[in-house]
Specification:
442 residues, alpha/beta, ten-stranded mixed sheet, 14 strands, 31% helix, binds iron/sulfur cluster
Length: 442
């Protein structure tokens, strides 16, 4: 609607874009960019093929059992060589890496990797790289200062109305870009019942807390019964309005999202679930079914992806990811700039890449498919959203705005209602000499 208004009014007020300075282009090109026209449809999953290649003899019953996957995670470089070709030198290098940053990948997620492609975007998230210990050694281990803001062990209270609860440091997979990879060396802990009692007591005593986020390590590594023990007690606290669960299980081990878990979650709503798809090839039939089970249980699913070099750092990759998510009814929520964490520098991208991606999505696809690009500031400064600058200039009376195609528009700034005295032609609604519009192409 807004677009057609602008086009309708284009001729009377249109002037060249040059007066507004360098770098602002008023493009007349009506054709969308080539990538927006040519996003190919790919089969939703290659997992069946890859599964046949490595796990053909695994009975269906085991393959569908998340505990089997968990027990059979690949955790050593020697095991990894059964699936991924590694030279002798690479094996030595990766063994050095895993002393500092361990390896864990589920058979399911491994089955999504193309073993013959060293640059495979799925591989980059799961398989260690020598760069983890050779790049960015000066980066902090805890840039978000979560340990500083921890009020009792396992509770981070940074914003007045919400807290982060960490129940365990165990994850189904060790994602190589993880912000909390400092925790991996601690050997896998789960907070005791006594510690959980202290965490719940803190929440109970702080009446301003209306939102509890249970996040990673991955809380779904706990048994459903144990998780219910925590969730049911949070639900008893009257001032807690919503519970959010942060988990990567729908992506790395979707078999975990079983009927028992979904039935439990459905009893304690409103519960929101944030997951972490980074690439469209992760959206397999198994992952889609897991998300569907959650949605049918009344649990909305949002996605928080991380912008990663060589994984999803192009407009095309993000478009495929976000369109794929919408097809399984998962809302692309955040696109995070990869945190400045030691051991992740090789996967980080310049901030401009994220801004350019948002500029390449906005307007070319539904706003539903456009996540908010954010930087989580170091030292606990919180999230800052970033996007291309669409405001070219601004006064009290009007703004000059750039649309997604670079065309410039004036927009009347309605400081006070237009009265008969203040408008030059109140009878016709003329503003700045252009009929019927707050939006004027300049
Ligand atoms: S699942 Fe989340 S917390 Fe666990 S390693 Fe991956 S990114 Fe980190």
């Amino acid at each position: 609607m807004k677009i057609s208004l602008a086009i309708k009014n284009r001729s009377p007020g249109m002037v060249g874009a040059e007066p507004f300075g360098e770098g602002i282009k008023s493009s007349d090109a009506e054709e969308p960019p080539s990538w927006a026209r040519s996003v190919e449809e790919e089969p939703p999953s290659k997992s069946a093929t890859a599964r046949d290649r490595f796990f053909a003899r695994i009975p269906e019953k085991d393959w569908n059992d998340w505990r089997w996957h968990f027990r059979n995670r690949i955790t050593t470089v020697d095991e990894l060589t059964n699936f991924i070709p590694l030279s002798a030198e690479e094996q030595v290098q990766l063994k050095l890496v895993t002393i500092q940053y361990p390896l864990a990948v589920t058979p399911y997620y491994l089955s999504l990797i193309n073993p013959d492609d060293k640059d495979d975007p799925i591989r980059k998230q799961a398989i260690p790289s020598f760069d983890e210990i050779t790049f960015g050694g000066m980066n902090p281990e805890d840039p978000l200062a979560e340990e500083r803001d921890s009020v009792v062990p396992g509770v981070v209270h940074r914003y007045p109305d919400r807290v982060l609860m960490v129940l365990t440091d165990v994850c189904p997979m060790f994602c190589r870009h993880c912000t909390r990879k400092r925790e991996w060396r601690n050997g896998g802990w789960v907070h005791s019942q006594g510690e959980i009692d202290v965490m719940l007591e803190y929440i109970r005593q702080h009446r301003g807390i209306r939102d509890v986020i249970i996040s990673g390590g991955d809380p779904l590594t706990l048994s459903t019964r144990r998780l219910e023990g925590v969730i049911s007690r949070i639900r008893e606290i009257k001032h807690v309005e919503i519970i959010r669960i942060g988990t990567r299980f729908p992506v790395v081990l979707p078999q975990r999202i079983d009927g028992e878990l979904c039935a439990m979650l459905s009893r304690y709503g409103p519960i929101w679930l944030n997951t972490h798809f980074n690439h469209h090839r992760e959206i397999t039939p198994e992952a889609a079914e897991a998300c569907d089970r959650l949605l049918r249980s009344g649990v909305p699913v949002n996605n928080q992806s991380v912008l990663l070099r060589g994984v999803n750092d192009t407009v095309e990759a993000q478009l495929k990811l976000c369109h794929g998510l919408l097809k399984i009814k998962v809302r692309p929520y955040y696109l995070y700039q990869c945190d400045e964490v030691r051991g992740t520098e090789h996967l980080r991208t310049p901030v401009e890449v994220g801004i350019k991606i948002i500029g390449g999505l906005r307007g070319y696809t539904s706003g539903l498919a456009v996540p908010t690009f954010v930087i989580d500031l170091s030292q606990g400064g919180g999230k800052v959203p970033l996007q291309p600058n669409y405001v070219v200039s601004q006064t009290e009376e009007e703004l000059t705005l750039r649309n997604y195609r670079g065309r410039l528009f004036r927009y009347r700034n309605p400081r006070k209602p237009i009265s008969a005295e203040s408008t030059p032609d109140s009878g016709t609604g003329l503003i700045s000499g252009v009929r019927d519009a707050d939006r004027v192409v300049v």
